[in-house]
Amino acid sequence: MEIRLELFAARHLSLFDELRTDPAVLRFTRIPANASANFGGQWLERYEQGRRDGTREVFAIVAGDDAVVGFAAAVSIDREAATAELGYVVVEQARGRGYASRALSLLTDWGFAELGAERLELLIGVDNEPSKRVAQKCGYQREGVLRSFAVKPGVREDMELWSRLPTD
Hints:
The protein has helices at 15-19, 23-28, 39-53, 99-113, 129-137; strands at 3-7, 57-63, 68-78, 83-90, 119-125, 141-152, 155-164. It is of the alpha+beta class. The chain has one domain: 3-Layer(aba) Sandwich (Aminopeptidase). A hairpin with a 4-residue loop joins strand 2 and strand 3 (68-78).
């Protein structure tokens, strides 16, 4: 399967039309359940600011036919500690086809090569089995559970912490 990561830009925002109504995305990501139609634009503004100050980065996951099938992000970058939290989301029709695994692999390579990261982390909901399989396939190791860590309106969720080091 051929995919590429390209810097996420305004031309990719139509992706959010689908993501903001996808039950799995709303359940397992930080996209709010009540995301407005302009959520994607506001989200991109935060990532563009992070791109400028070196604290975040986001890429569109683009399939070989130029279809945008998701995004892969460095949700937070701590250059002093040489760490980053990574995340990935693919649209429903791309799930189970290897897009997430390939995107995380490319993003991981980017984190070690471009950021010089010494530790990359993933936070995955304890019930998100598909995402845990992606992490494991990409060489991440489960470290433990952060209890009552994620917060959405009316819901607190346990999250698993997964990590990868350049030596793994």
